[in-house]
Amino acid sequence: MSINATPAGAEVTAEAERPGGRHAAVPAQRAGRRARTPLSENKRAERRLGWLLCAPAALVMVLVTAYPIIYSVWLSLQRFDLRFPDQREFIGLENYATVLTNQFWWTAFGVTALITVVTVAIELVLGMALALLMHRTLVGRGIVRTAALIPYGIVTVVAAFSWRYAWTPGTGYLANLFDGSAPLTERASSLAIIMLAEIWKTTPFMALLLMAGLALVPEDLLKAASTDGATAWQRFTKVMLPVMKPAILVALLFRTLDAFRVFDNIFVLTAGGNETSSVSMLAYNNLIRGLNLGIGSTMSVLIFLTVAIIAFVFVKLFGTAAPGSDDGERR
Amino acid sequence: MADIVLDKVSKRYPDGTVAVQDVDLEIADGEFVILVGPSGCGKSTTLNMIAGLEDISSGELRIAGERVNDKAPRDRDIAMVFQSYALYPNMTVRENMAFPLRLAKVDKETIDSKVEEAAKVLELTPLLDRKPANLSGGQRQRVAMGRAIVRQPKAFLMDEPLSNLDAKLRVQMRTVVSRLQKQLGTTTVYVTHDQTEAMTLGDRVVIMRGGAVQQVGPPQELYDHPRNLFVAGFIGSPSMNFLHAAVEDGKLRTALGDVPIGERLRRQLDGADAPRELILGIRPEHFEDAGLVDDDTRRRGMEFEAPVEIVESMGSDKYVYFTVEGERASAAELEELAADAGAADFTGTGASLVTRLSAESPVREGENRRVWFNLEKIHLFDPSTGRNLTLHEGRASGALAD
Amino acid sequence: MATETTTRAKLRWGLLDVIVVVFAFIPVLWIASLSFKTPATLADGKFWPREWTLDNYRTIFATDQFIRALVNSIGIALIATLVAVVLGAMAAYAISRLDFPGKKLLVGVSLLIAMFPQVSLVSPLFEIERQLGLFDTWPGLILPYITFALPLAIYTLSAFFKQIPWDLEKAAKMDGATQGQAFRRVIAPLAAPGLFTTAILVFIFCWNDFLFAISLTSTERSRTVPAALSFFTGASQFEDPTGAICAAAVVITIPIILFVLFFQRRIVSGLTSGAVKG
Q1: For this UniProt entry, which segments traverse the membrane (chain C) (predicted)?
Q2: Considering chain B, what is the average pLDDT of its residues?
C-alpha cells in the first residue's frame, strides 16, 4: 500500500492556499476567470452537440419569424397594393399615419382590448374555480378533467359555428330563448357572444395552467393553516394564492397575449360586422380581402409592437416571476 | 486493476468558487479508500473528476500510470455506483447488468455467463427478469453493484451507495460491499458523509473539508492521532468533547479543573506567539466513574465533580451527560461541524460533557458524581489554526508528555 | 357523522362536476345534433333532432371539396407534428441536458415566438410565399405550423426530459456509452411517453389553426378543413350549407374527442408540466 498525501493540513485553509506560488494552478485559474479557454475534449464535444441539436429548431423559428418581421417592416414603409402593383413606391411612415388616424383601426383596437380584458378577467376567476375543482374534487376527477379538455382541444372554428347556430334565430336553441331576436346582428350582443365563445374555449387552458400551480401548494401547509384556525377563504387567499403567484402570472401573460390575437371566433360569428372586428381581423381584411400589403403590413407591425409592449410590461411588473427567467434550466 | 494518482487536482467553477483544492492522493492497486467529510467538502466532486463526469481544472489524474484528464468516462474503464442507483427503468435486471458489456460489444455468450456469475455472487439470480420498479431498495442497490462488477473494471467508484437504505440494511450491505471488494481485489474509491461507514469500510480514509484534504490514514490512526480540530471532531461517535482551556502559570485552566502540562508542551507554549487560549479535546471513553478506577490508573489522570444531567444506558456501558460550568470552546471548525450536524443554532445552555462510563457505575440523574479522566488521552488544539499541539511526529501523546 | 359530511361533500363536488361536464359538452352535442337533423327540421330550434338522418354526412363525402380538405388537414398536421417533435426533441434534449452558450437565448426566443401575434406574420409570409411559390401549397402551411409548434414542443419536452433522472445518463457514460448512445439507449426509451404526449399537443395545435389556413391558401389544393368550412356552400348553391358544415365539423372533432378520451392523463400532464416551468 503506497503512501499518501501531502495533506493541506489544518493550518492551511482552502482560501489561504490560493495565492500565487504554485504555478501549476495559476494559468487555469486565470483562464477560469476569462471564461473557459482551455476546454477539455469532453466539454467541447458537449457544446458542439448542444449547438448541433438546437440548430435546426432555432433556424426554422428564426427564418419563419425574424425574417418576415423585418420584411413586413420594409413592406409597411411602402405603398403596395396588389391590385395596383405599378403604384408601388417607398412612402416612409405614411402608412402608419393612415392607419393611426383611421377610425376603423381604433375601433378594432378598442374591441380587441375590451375582449382581452373582459375575457381574461372572467377566465381567471372561472379558471381558478375549475382548477380547484379538478384538483380537489372527491368524485369523478377523471371525468371533469376529460370534460375540461374538450373545449381546449376542439377546433375553434367548429365551436364558433356551434355558437353561431345556437344564436341564429329559428335554428338556435339559445336564440329562441330570447324570443327569436337576432343577437348576432347587434353590436353589444355580438361582442358578448364572441366573449362567451372565447371564454368557453380557453377557460380550461387557464385552469390547467393554474392547476399546475395548485399542485405546488404543499398539502401540509394547508393542514397547518387550518390547525392554525384559518377559514377556507383565508387558506385560499393567504396560503394558496401566494404560492401560486408565479403560475397565475404565467397563465395571465399567456392568455392575455393569446386573447389579443382573437380572430377565429369573430371571423365565424360576425365576420367583423357591426364594428366587431379585432385588430387581427382588420389586418386580415386589408391583406387578403383588400390585397393591400402596405397597409396590412403596417397593421401587422403595430400589433406586434403592442404585444411586445404588453409582454414587456408583464415581465417588468412581475420581474423574476416571469417565465424564462428561472434558473431551472441549468443543472 | 490499477492504481489511481491525484496530483494537485483542483476544481474551480467559472464563477470563481473552488470546489476542490490541490488534492494529492495515491491510491494503490486494490486499495479501498474512503473520501469522507461534511456536505460541500468536495468529496463528490473529487469522485466525479476521477470518473470523468466533471472536468479537472488543474492538476493531473493518472489511472494505471496513464494521464486521463481529457479522457471520456467510457475510455477510463472504471465503474460507478450511484447514490440513486441509477438503474435504467426500462430494462430488466439482466439487461441493466448486461448494458456495459453490450456497449463494449462483448459477444452474447460471454455476456450471459458474466451476468449470471455476478448475479450469483450478489444473490440476484431469481430477480434477473424483473424491472427495477419491482425491486426493494436493497435489491436495487445490489443490481447497481452487479452492473459495476460485471465488466471487471480497473476501479470502482461509489458515491454514497448506501445512504438511501434504512439503518439496518445499511449495516448489512456494508459487509457485502466490504466482502465483495476483498474478493475482487479491485481498487475502490468510496464517498460517504457517514463517519461510521468511513471507519468500518476503508483501508484508508481521506477526510476533506472545504475542498482540501485534512488528513489521510487508516481509520484507527485518524481516531487516535487527529491532525487537527476538524478531524478530531468529525471522527468518533459520540464525538469528542471540546472545552475551553486558558494557559496560566504552566497549567491549563479548564471547566474540569487545572490540568497540568508536560515539559514538551510547556516549551511549545512558552514561545512569544504561542496561543494563550486553547481547546482541550477528550473522547467520551476516556472518562470513568472515579469510584471504579484503581490507584494505578488514577495516577495517569485527574478527577472532577459535576452534576449528572442525563444517563443513557447502552447495556454494555453508560453514556452520561454532565453539565459543566465555564466558557464554551469556540472555533470555526467546531461551528462547521455543528452546522453539518444541523445544530448550529441550537446550542442549549451551558456546556454539556458526554462521557462513556462502565455499566457497573451506579450513576443516577440529578446527583453530583465524581469522574476521572485520562490525561494521556487529552488533545490540545490551537483555536486559530485548529492544529493539534499534542501531536508529536504524527502521534498524539497527551498533555503530560515530556 | 364523518360519513355524513363526506357524503354531503361528495354530493356537492358531484354537482359541480356535472355543471362542468354539461357546460363543456353542450356546444359539441349541439353541433352533432344539428348534423343529424333533416333539412326540414334544421330550423326548428330544438336541441335534439326529431328525425335522424345521415344525409349530411353523405353529402360532404360525396363531393371532392371536403375529402380534399380532410386529406390536406391530416397530411399537413401529421407532417408538421412529426418535424416539430423531432426538432423539438433535439433542442429540448440539449436544453435540459447539456451546457452550452446560447441556451438561454434559445429558450427566450422560443418563448417570444410562443407569444407572437400570428397575424403579424400573415402579411409578410403571404408575400414571401407568393414569391417563393410556396403560397397555397402544403409546405407553405407546414412551415409556419412547425415554427409555432416548436416552442410548445420544446417546453413540454424539456419538462419531460428534466424528470428523467440525471444520474442515468452519467451511469450510461460510466458504463461505456457515448453521449449519442446514452441518448438512444437510455434517454429515448424513457422519453417516449413525453414524445407521444407532445405529439398529441402539437397535432391539436396544427389541426386547430384557422388564420394561416385561410390566409396562405386559396384553393382546395392545400385548404384545410377549418378554412374549407368557412367557404362551404353545400352541394348546390341553393342548398343551406348548415347541415353539411355541422357534419364536417363533427368529423374533424372526432380525432380530438378520441385523443381526449384516451389520453386525458397524458395531455393534462403535458400541458401542466410545461406550464410550471413556464
Answers
A1: 12-32, 74-93, 105-126, 138-161, 182-205, 242-263
A2: 89
